[in-house]
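Protocol step 4 of 6: structure prediction from sequence.
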Amino acid sequence: MPRPLQISQSDNTIIKQIMQDKGITIDELATRMGRAKTTIINQLKLSNMTINSLAAIAKALDVEIADLFPVPDGYVHYEERRKANRFSTQKQNVENVTKDEFALFCKFKEFMKKEREEV
């Protein structure tokens, strides 16, 4: 079973802002997720969610899971780097990715694979 993640109040604020921007109420979010309204309220209030819950929220809001978290100064989101062709599968573009970026990407990919297997 996935362990709960502690998310910050700013992460909850982002979730609430996305809901407001898209005109989605807690009731509608709960319906889209197939969960009770009180469950969603408690998760947001306690800032205690599993990666699966965050993935379900992202899916229900039709956003990427990374969109639920604040972006640190200077960070370029994966999707932006991908669009810039920095993660191309062609060998000639591999030098554009630092070893640290690639290692982090591989760890995240493995983590998400394990999470999907647990579902």
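Step 5 (inspection) to follow. The chain is about 60% helix and 5% strand.
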